[in-house]
Each structure stands twice: as C-alpha cells, then as structure tokens.
Amino acid sequence: MNPMSLLRLFLLAALWGGSFLFMRVSVPVLGAIPTAFCRVALGALGLYGLIAFWRTGFSFKGKFTATLFLGVINSGIPFLLFAFAAKVLPAGYSAIINATTPLMGVLIGALAFGEQFTMSKAVGVVTGFAGVAILTRTGPTTVNGPMLWGIASCLGATACYGLAGFLTKRWITLRGGLGSSNVALGSQIGAMLMLSPFMVWDEATHPLTWHDVHANVWISMLALGLLCTSFGYVLYFRLIADVGPMKALTVTFLIPFFGTLWGWLLLNEVATLAHAFGGGLIAIALWLILQQGSSQVQKINSNKQIERV
C-alpha cells in the first residue's frame, strides 16, 4: 500500500474501533434495533451532506438497485447483529471478533468467487482465528450462553462483510465503477429500508421515551452515524478502489487494537496480556494475507475501476 492508503487504513480502523464503544453506550438505552436503524439513517444523512458539499453529484449510473442490495449485506444485517452483540459483549470483544472479516473474505473468495487459496492465506486464516480464540477464551468475560450468542452474532456480521467486498467488485466495480460516496450513500439507504420494518415493530412493541434519553447517548449515536458510518464508508470504498477488496478488508485486523483501547480508556474495560498475545497473532495473520493478493484483486487495483471521490 502507498502512504495515503495506509493513512486511510489506520484512520478507518480508529473510527470503526470506536463504533463498538458507541454501541455499548447506545444499545443498553435505545435497544439494538433503534441503534442500528438510527446509525444507518444518520449515515445516509451525513453522506448526502458530504456529496452535496463536495458537489460530486448523485449519479448512480444505473447501479442504484445494486447499491441498495449491497447495503443490506454490508450494513443492515451486520449493524443489527453487532448491536445485538453489544448487549452482552464488551466493546473490545466485538472489535476482536470483527477481525475475522478478512478471514471470512479469504474463505468466501475461495469457495464462491474463484480466489486462489494459497498456503500463505491458509496459514493466515488459521493464525488469525487462533488469535481471536485466545482473546475470547482468556479474556475477563465468562463464557456462557448469552456470550456465545453474542459471538455468533459477530461472526455472522463478519461473514456479511467478507461477502460484501466481493459483491462490491461484481455489482459495482466490474460494471464500470461508481463514485465511492455514492456507493456508500446507496448502501445506507438500502440498509435503512431493510431495517425500517424492524424499527416499526420494535417501537410498537417496546415504545421508547425518546425525550428521556441522556445526552451522552445522542452524542454516541451522532458519532456512530456521522463519523463511523458516513465518513467511514467513504474511506472504506475508497480503499477498495485503491487496493482491492481483500486488502481493504484487512482494516479489521487493526480494529481490535482501537476497540480495546477505546473500551479501556473510556468504559474501564479490562485489557489483559491475552489481548496482547492474541493481537500479536492477528498482526501476523494480517502480514501473511497482505503478502498474497489474488490476480483479480491486482487487476482491480491497477485499472482503478471505481472513480475517485
């Protein structure tokens, strides 16, 4: 990666690592469904404002429907699953399990998209999952039923992320490309449409007294929607344009560090030596996967088929 792509990678990791902190603040008060819905609604609003400010235009070039479906897989389902996980898992745990996204990407790419599964990638997958297992089993949270459901929700979300990287290439990039901000906006609209029926049902069955919500919850939601989602997804789709879907997915290897850091600093979550050891294994897995880019990913990177913002 060139220096600017690396800078975007670390900035995105810091933002998305913070998203788990903001969910831990918001979900206990608002609930999982309202948190996920407000996140994508604010994300769509923020992206609309960014596009209007940058004057890049709202042209989807016949790919608006594709971006809607992409949003269901890349935002709607995983945001909802991570919000459910935030009920029972510390922010650092969810951020750590989120690191399985590139591993899921490698497996999904090999099984469904003809990506080459090299020895380096295989060792990276095993090493990465070993790091996640160490961090999960030796951390301060007791392994029980709710925790296992939370972990399963996180793994379901990362599988969606891994799939979405390749669908972005197939539905958007290989069809002539689309500005990254428009891809992000369309995806958030799609996620909002998908979550709307759940939001109506949740409000009907568990009405929330919105005016009693504390200011720190609203601040967390604004940060989650505008920074982590609006600005974050612009960075993410720009990374896909610059370095391809597999290398863009490796941002999630850096998220555990930031998620654990923010949780430790701001929520008094415990950080142990297991975090350092498991994080070291994840870093090794990151290096192994970065060494091997598939020929298809390299082609996307060289042709620059997604337009610059």
For the record, the count of structural domains works out to 1
Quote the beta fraction. Answer: under 5%
Fraction of residues in helix = over 70%
Helix-strand category:
mainly alpha
Order of helices and strands: HHHHHHHHHHHHH
> What do the pLDDT scores average to?
84
Q: Could you name the ranges where pLDDT drops below 50 across 5 or more consecutive residues?
A: 294-309
**Rg result:** 18 Å
| Terminal Cα span | 19 Å
Q: Count every helix, treating DSSP H or I runs of 4 or more residues as helices.
A: 13
**From the structure provided, what is the oligomeric state, counting identical versus distinct chains?**
single chain
> What spatial form do the alpha-carbon principal axes imply?
globular
Keywords: Membrane, Transmembrane, Transmembrane helix
Domain EamA: 9-136, 148-290
Subcellular location: Membrane
Pfam family, one: EamA
